[in-house]
Specification:
Layout: E1 8-14, H1 18-26, E2 33-38, H2 43-52, E3 56-60, H3 66-76, E4 82-86, E5 90-92, H4 96-104, E6 112-117, E7 125-126, E8 141-142, E9 145-146, E10 150-154, H5 155-158, H6 178-188, E11 193-203, H7 214-237, H8 239-259, H9 265-282
Parallel strand pairs: 1-2, 1-4, 2-3, 6-11
Antiparallel strand pairs: 4-10, 5-11, 6-10, 7-9, 8-11
Length: 295
């Protein structure tokens, strides 16, 4: 069965995201169903969103379960064959969905298909290798992975693959690289991931959470960026590979923490959180850190 607006549901995982999520929702055609998994557990936000938009259902997650688990939660609640995972700070063009639908009919099979960033200098995909024969302005092209802020999953196909029936994203990963892990496992199953160059999106980048929580979110990002990088490499390539791959980040962060120790408390603390993310990953601790934010 092909993609259609009636056979597609958008999944948005939010956390203190009201400052940007309305632009995201308004950019999605009104005849497409949307499920929001709100990690803020904000009843007022849920009621406001559902009252404002007829095509939106908001589910409170009770606690902050992160991006991967939040996406899984949303995908488990839909009854369509396709799920379009979006970050709340992504805005679609008027024809973004229609271009994906049209492109999908030109492709034999796919497990993931993605729009492309308007900003060409910041591609939201990774190629297998440099291939000058690919026309990146016209036809859909295969890639190794796509960024998790905008990826459409062919659920009916993925559910037929081993280890994808009940869980798509690795829920051990709270933040960062959950999309790389998913794409790697998809490729290892011999499946295809495509980017549609005529389907454009705008991504604000690190703006999904209200700016008044910027500092605490920045600490969380730095902790999880290093932890997730270690976990990803350990999972797929082994402990030693992970250690030597991520150790330079630890060394650099340690140097910079001492450099800023007396002259910039903010930067000192950010690099300290990178160190803590690394040390917790090295000793095998779970991704436990959560932003300290009060509603």
């Amino acid at each position: 069965m092909s993609i259609s607006r009636q056979n597609l549901t958008v999944i948005i995982v939010s956390f203190m995201s009201e400052n940007v999520i309305h632009d995201c929702i308004r950019s999605i055609p009104k005849d497409i169903k949307i499920i929001i998994i709100d990690n803020s557990n904000d009843e007022f936000f849920k009621n406001k969103i559902e009252k404002k938009y007829n095509n939106v259902r908001c589910i409170l997650s009770e606690k902050n379960i992160g991006m991967g688990a939040g996406n899984n939660y949303g995908l488990s609640e839909i009854d369509t064959d396709y799920g379009f995972v979006l970050n709340p700070d992504v805005v679609l063009r008027n024809d973004t969905i229609d271009e994906i639908i049209f492109a999908s009919k030109q492709i034999d099979t796919f497990s993931v298909i993605s729009p492309i960033m308007e900003e060409e200098n910041y591609p939201n995909y990774k190629m297998y290798k440099l291939d000058n024969s690919i026309n990146k302005k016209e036809k859909p092209f295969k890639v190794e992975s796509v960024d998790g802020f905008a990826m459409l999953l062919n659920l009916s196909r993925l559910k037929k693959l081993e280890n994808f029936k009940d869980e798509f994203f690795d829920e051990n990963i709270f933040l960062y690289l959950e999309n790389d892990d998913l794409c790697k496992r998809i490729i290892e199953h011999g499946e295809s991931i495509y980017v549609v160059p005529k389907s454009k999106i705008k991504h604000l980048g690190a703006k999904a959470v209200d700016e008044k929580y910027e500092y605490e979110i920045e600490l969380s990002r730095n902790w999880h960026w290093v932890w997730s990088k270690f976990y990803f490499h350990e999972k797929h390539y082994g402990y030693l590979n992970a250690f030597f791959k991520v150790c330079p980040i630890f060394i650099s962060a340690t140097f910079k923490m001492f450099l800023y120790f007396f002259i910039n408390k903010r930067k000192k603390t950010i690099y300290l959180y990178r160190i803590l993310g690394f040390l917790n990953a090295v000793v095998g601790k779970k991704s436990f850190y959560r932003p300290k934010i009060n509603n």
